Automatic annotation (TrEMBL), chain A:
Protein name as annotated: Tryptophan synthase beta chain
Organism encoding this protein: Chelatococcus caeni
One MF term in the entry's GO annotations: tryptophan synthase activity
Keywords: Amino-acid biosynthesis, Aromatic amino acid biosynthesis, Lyase, Pyridoxal phosphate, Tryptophan biosynthesis
Residues with PTM N6-(pyridoxal phosphate)lysine: 104
Pathway participation: Amino-acid biosynthesis; L-tryptophan biosynthesis; L-tryptophan from chorismate: step 5/5
Self-association state and partner proteins as the record states: Tetramer of two alpha and two beta chains.
Job description of the protein: The beta subunit is responsible for the synthesis of L-tryptophan from indole and L-serine.
Superkingdom of the source species: Bacteria
Name of the encoding gene: trpB
Reaction equation(s) it catalyzes: (1S,2R)-1-C-(indol-3-yl)glycerol 3-phosphate + L-serine = D-glyceraldehyde 3-phosphate + L-tryptophan + H2O
From TrEMBL, chain B:
Record's signal peptide: none
Organism superkingdom: Bacteria
Gene Ontology CC annotations of this record: cytosol
Residues in coiled coil: none
Assembly description: Tetramer of two alpha and two beta chains.
GO terms, molecular function: tryptophan synthase activity
Function: The alpha subunit is responsible for the aldol cleavage of indoleglycerol phosphate to indole and glyceraldehyde 3-phosphate.
Pfam families the record matches: Trp_syntA
Pathway field: Amino-acid biosynthesis; L-tryptophan biosynthesis; L-tryptophan from chorismate: step 5/5
Keywords of this entry: Amino-acid biosynthesis, Aromatic amino acid biosynthesis, Lyase, Tryptophan biosynthesis
Protein name: Tryptophan synthase alpha chain
Organism: Chelatococcus caeni
InterPro entries in the cross-refs: Aldolase_TIM, RibuloseP-bd_barrel, Trp_synthase_alpha_AS, Trp_synthase_suA
Length: 411, 278
């Protein structure tokens, strides 16, 4: 397929939800009317200054925004050792300091306020690592809404702390036993719930995937990450960064950071997928690197699958990245070449998890540990005046039991 | 006149609704699945829907999820499903075959190649759950151009404003989903279903069949009074499951279990015809 040169990378999606050939609305008829209703409600909210003002109020006083842009001095110095006079200046966008501990709350706040405008009283969501589930349970508690969270049974086991948090917040957590019992199956089950309870229920999707308008809407709600980063880096350095790095499962934290910079041609952008046990092992979650275009969960995008079009089971140490697909806008940015997609293995992510903890006193979640792992590779190749911003999308409290278990002997 | 049109016309001439049976291709294995397929017309099925198994059947309940998993575990592929239709068609010229499933396996097989191979194998129509009218360019329009029927699902959430869009490129028949829900879950409210069928019939001359939640001959009879056809799926694949041995393999009763249930459902559909006539 030939890709046309574009005037702007920020013009998508078209009115049918397409980013190039990706995206769309591949859902059962039962859901089509509600999808159109969400689209209409979101378009109206977007143009309503009262909605934006309400968002801004909660973002400031409930979420705790803006999140800091922090110069990671010791990580920078560490990566300059033996780099022959090279080594980028590394900034962390501290999304892990948000209420609920990750970037997920930015999107959930927007969608819950939208659901309220639509008069929906029951909220459902899928979750992998539990961060989206916790954010959804939190805002449902805040606004007195019924909340049901679908979570793969495997993930319920490996992310126990988040399961307890959701329950304490009043949500019902449903462990999903079908398929690979991880994030994709949680999404299937959430869709089945929505088909069944469509009249009363709003589906709060956690990433930049699903049928139109979700990929664009979730991106818009997350774009505050990139907007703040622009202002903050201009204030700190007087110029835009030279590169951005973020991890990608579905890709919402990455889309949120990248989107406001897509048309700044001099800003290099790197998305980091989860390479699991390594791309050659076949046990990974790197849809762009190891997959091909297909249709699942409402959109056309890159997917891991076999030759018969059956969806493969992804693997990652990180429950939040353990998904065989990726948001359609990332698929588009991959094919146009605007964003470079690379991957980090479980082992590299674990090492980065420990490195950041010890050097900066910040325990990152396993998801952004994948991004840190690639910063460790990329930064020493760049000159010292190269400014690199990495999205620290979540904190690692939820991962402490799992990592302690894996590194067992060391603790 | 297509094979589907002829079959509905024949049922109408008998003053009754059609029985549409769904089974999953390759469940629990290829040979047993073909034997089940061959048994369906003689047991009283008027049209046959063959499920193309998919790893992520988002609109299906546990019964069809499990049947898809059994088939995939047994090595079923879209190519083998088309082979199965070809083998069935060799001995059965009149019973329409509709392939039902999700888009990704077709997309990966290649739409043009799939339509050609399906047509040659003797497939009459397609039902693809995750292709609403908004995505008609993908498969619906090419299928119609290739001479296959594209059967659309209408649901309780499809209101009068939307119905024309849903019916626009539909051919063969309209499949009314009796509940807002997944396959094999709640039992529908038969009165509400009859009203909905009447509502759809006001917009189209196509036959309207009803499915989701139909489990017994009694249910089939209740639906058949108002609709042109009744679809039964989950109950049949559940009968397959119940007949399997401890290792999930077919037994001597697998084919007969399905045959017996289809017989009851066919009797239900036919009894409703008498009720209407009386």
């Amino acid at each position: 397929m030939t890709v046309q040169p574009l005037n702007s990378y920020r013009s998508g999606p078209d009115e049918r939800g397409h980013f190039g050939m990706f995206g769309g609305r591949f859902v059962a008829e039962t859901l089509m009317p509600v999808i159109l209703e969400v689209e209409k409600a979101y378009a109206a909210a977007k143009d309503d200054p009262a909605f934006q003002a309400e968002m801004d109020g909660y973002l400031a006083h409930y979420v705790g925004r803006p999140s800091p842009l922090y110069y990671a001095e010791r990580l920078t110095e560490h990566l300059r050792e033996g780099a022959g006079g090279k080594g980028a200046k590394i900034y962390l966008k501290r999304e892990e300091l948000n209420h609920t501990g990750s970037h997920k709350v930015n999107n959930v706040l927007g969608q819950i306020l939208l659901a309220r405008r639509m008069g929906k009283k029951r909220i459902i969501a899928e979750t992998g690592a539990g961060q989206h589930g916790v954010a959804t349970a939190t805002l449902c508690a805040r606004f007195g809404l019924e909340c049901v969270i679908y979570m793969g049974a495997v993930d319920v086991e490996r992310q126990k702390p988040n399961v307890f948090r959701m329950q304490m917040l009043g949500a019902t957590v449903v462990p999903v036993q079908s398929g690979s019992r991880t994030l994709k199956d949680a999404m299937n089950e959430a869709l089945r719930d929505w088909v069944t309870n469509v009249a009363t229920t709003y589906y709060c999707i956690g990433t930049v995937a699903g049928p139109h308008p979700y990929p664009a809407m979730v991106r818009d709600f997350q774009a505050i990450i990139g907007k703040e980063t622009r202002e903050q880096v201009l204030a700190a350095e007087g110029r835009l960064p030279d590169s951005l790095v973020a991890c990608i499962g579905g890709g919402s934290n990455a889309m949120g950071l990248f989107y406001p910079f897509l048309d700044d041609k001099d800003v290099e952008i790197h998305g980091v997928e989860a390479a699991g046990h390594g791309l050659a092992s076949g046990q990974h979650a790197a849809s762009l690197t190891g997959g091909r275009p297909g249709v699942l969960h409402g959109n056309r995008t890159y997917l891991l699958m076999d030759d018969d079009g059956q969806i493969a089971e992804a693997h990652s140490i990180s429950a939040g990245l353990d998904y065989p697909g990726i948001g359609p806008e990332h698929a588009f940015l991959h094919e146009t070449g605007r964003v470079t997609y690379i991957s980090a293995t479980d082992k590299e992510a674990l090492e980065a998890f420990m490195l950041l903890s010890k050097l900066e006193g910040i325990i990152p979640a396993l998801e952004p540990s994948h991004a840190i792992a690639k910063v460790v590779e990329l930064a020493p190749q760049k000159p010292q005046d190269h400014i690199m911003v990495v999205n620290l999308s979540g904190r690692g409290d939820k991962d402490v039991p799992q990592v302690a278990d894996i590194l067992g002997g060391q603790f | 006149m297509s094979r589907i049109d002829r079959r509905f016309a024949a049922c109408r001439a008998e003053g009754r609704a059609a029985l549409v049976t769904f089974v999953t291709a390759g469940d629990p294995d290829a040979d047993t699945s073909l034997a089940i397929l061959k048994a369906l017309p003689r047991a009283g099925a008027d049209l046959i829907e063959i499920g193309m198994p998919f790893t992520d059947p988002m609109a299906d309940g546990p019964a069809i999820q499990l049947s898809s998993q059994r088939a995939l575990k047994g090595g079923q592929t879209l190519t083998k499903t088309l082979d199965m239709v070809r083998a069935f068609r060799a001995g059965e010229a009149d019973t329409p075959v509709i392939l039902m499933g999700y888009y990704n396996p077709i997309y990966i097989y290649g739409v043009a190649r799939f339509l050609k191979d399906a047509r040659e194998a003797g497939v009459d129509g397609l039902i693809v759950v995750d292709l609403p009218p908004e995505e008609d360019d993908e498969l619906c329009v090419p299928a119609l151009n290739a001479g296959l029927s594209f059967i659309r699902l209408a649901t309780p959430t499809t209101d009068d404003a939307r119905l024309p869009a849903v019916l626009a490129n539909t051919s063969g028949f309209v499949y009314y989903v009796s509940i807002t829900g997944i396959t094999g879950s709640a039992t529908p409210d038969f009165g509400a279903v009859a009203q909905s069928v009447a509502r759809i019939k006001a917009h189209t001359d196509l036959p309207v069949v009803v499915g989701f939640g139909v489990k017994t001959g009694g249910h089939a009879a209740a639906i058949a009074r108002g609709a042109d056809g009744v679809v039964v799926g989950s109950a049949l694949v559940e009968a397959v499951r119940a007949s399997l041995d401890g290792e999930g393999r077919a037994t001597a009763t697998t084919v007969t279990a399905v045959e017996t249930l289809v017989g009851e459902l066919a009797a239900g559909v036919r009894s409703a015809a008498k009720a209407t006539a009386a």
